[in-house]
From TrEMBL:
The keyword Heme does not apply. InterPro entries: Glyco_trans_2-like (IPR001173), Glycosyltransferase_2 (IPR050256), Nucleotide-diphossugar_trans (IPR029044). The lineage of its organism: Bacteria, Pseudomonadati, Pseudomonadota, Gammaproteobacteria, Lysobacterales. It comes from the Bacteria. GO terms for cellular component: plasma membrane. GO terms for biological process: lipopolysaccharide biosynthetic process. Transmembrane segments: none annotated. Keywords: Cell membrane, Glycosyltransferase, Lipopolysaccharide biosynthesis, Membrane, Transferase, Transmembrane, Transmembrane helix. It comes from Solilutibacter silvestris. This is Glycosyltransferase. Pfam families: Glycos_transf_2. SUPFAM superfamilies: Nucleotide-diphospho-sugar transferases (SSF53448).
Length: 241
């Protein structure tokens, strides 16, 4: 692509070979003709045919770029490396399992265009989640605990579809699993965030890479760490003389 993109859609994937092409086709349908954009897929050392599908589609889709991890590093690292590789000033993220709906990206862009310049993140809010009962229950209580500890006024930080400014994201402290706490981290940096209702879909193929127990064990430690970061934050506006 020769035209400078205004939006980069970053999609981290691990073993999602059957979801890659349908999701890319949906992204194209949602954004072509609306603004210059690129799609940055980050393959986290998939063991199935994910990379082969991406390589084939790269020859057909001029907007598509592919970044490959040389070692399996997790979703937060994949998102960050995708953002670092991105060429646009604004980033939209989607989960690679295709449960997020790319048709919601224009809605997030419209919310951005209405907001003030201090709002740097527009976080998807899955009002009607299409997950198992146990997953919805675990998420509900995790959100209650997180909200009480972090006071981030965000009903759903786990939603994969988000829109944010690239520079603001790259200025955040990086750590594994940070993708689950982006609104709180943005607020810590002094920016506003807005939650936007979005569509949520059943997983069509493949399997989840997380378990409720695994999320809980990691989440407790991460919550304490993010809470510590917020308590120690100091923000000072400056001016050049």
């Amino acid at each position: 692509m020769s035209e400078q993109p205004q939006l980069s859609v970053v999609v981290p994937v691990y073993n999602e070979q059957d979801n890659v092409e349908p999701l890319i086709r949906e992204i194209l349908a949602a954004l072509r003709g609306k603004l210059p954009f690129e799609i940055v897929y980050v393959d986290d050392q998939s063991k199935d045919g994910t990379l082969s599908v991406l390589q084939r589609l790269k020859t057909e889709v001029p907007e598509l770029r592919v970044v490959r991890h040389l070692s399996n590093s997790g979703q937060s690292t994949a998102v960050r490396n995708g953002v670092k590789a991105a060429r646009a000033p604004w980033i939209a993220t989607l989960d690679g399992d295709a449960q997020n709906d790319p048709a919601d990206i224009p809605n997030l862009l419209a919310e951005r265009d209405k907001a003030d310049g201090d709002t740097k993140m527009f976080a998807g809010w899955r009002v009607k989640r299409q997950d198992s009962g146990s997953k919805r229950w675990a998420s509900k209580w995790a959100n209650v605990l997180r909200s009480r500890m972090l006071r981030d006024s965000t009903p759903d930080t786990g939603c994969g579809i988000k829109l944010f400014e690239r520079d603001a994201f790259l200025d955040l402290p990086y750590f594994d699993h940070m993708h689950r706490y982006l609104p709180a981290l943005m607020q810590r940096a002094g920016w506003k965030t807005i939650s936007v209702p979005v569509n949520h879909r059943h997983r069509a193929s493949g399997s989840s890479k997380y378990t409720n127990f695994g999320r809980a064990m990691v989440g407790v430690r991460d919550l304490r760490g993010v809470s510590w970061l917020i308590d120690r934050s100091r923000r000072t506006r400056t001016e050049e003389l």
